[in-house]
Amino acid sequence: MKVSLGRPVKINNFLTTLNLTLISNRNLKKMDARAGEAIKKISTASSNKAAIDVYEREME
Description:
Blueprint: H1 8-17, H2 25-59
C-alpha cells in the first residue's frame, strides 16, 4: 500500500496560502515516506485490534 500526502506543488500551494515557508521537493519526499510508514503501522495495529475484538465477541 502506498500512502501519499499529495504532490509537492499541491503542498507548497497550501503553505503559500497560509503564508508559510515552502519546503523543498527532496524534504517533502522524505516526510512523505515517514508519514506513509507511520500510517501503515497505525492501520495495521487498528486492524489487529479490531480482529481481536471480533474474535472475543464471537467466543462469548
